[in-house]
Amino acid sequence: MSVPKDLRYTKTHEWIRREGDVAVLGITHYAQDQLGEVVYVELPDAGTRAAPGEELGTLESVKAVSELFSPVGGEVIAVNERLTDAPHLVNDDPFGEGWLVKIKISEEPELLDAAAYEKLVAEESQ
Questions:
Q1: How far apart are alpha carbons 42 and 67 in whole angstroms?
Q2: Which of 5, 22, 33, 110 has its CA 20 to 30 A from that of 119?
Q3: Neighbouring-strand partners of residue 19
């Protein structure tokens, strides 16, 4: 399982990569593996306001529907439009081409580093 060291993580298995005052958001390798093949992604419109922990959208797989939660507060400034026609990118490249939204950060709570996230996943996997 891949857990990039340069990202921050949530207990609900989202990741963010900071790019200045913007957070690029996606779901972790562990989350996409638990979901199975993602077949549909519902994301917010650009301009949507998000609060930390607030539901932003859903990911539908052959196994289940899972909510996407915002790790940070701010305004959605971009959505990965490619996922409309290619939701499998969430599975194929969750930390790259499978990113979900970009949020201009106005509030950033404490998030997990890679080591803390790996520990969380190990505990959940037992």
A1: 9
A2: 22
A3: 22
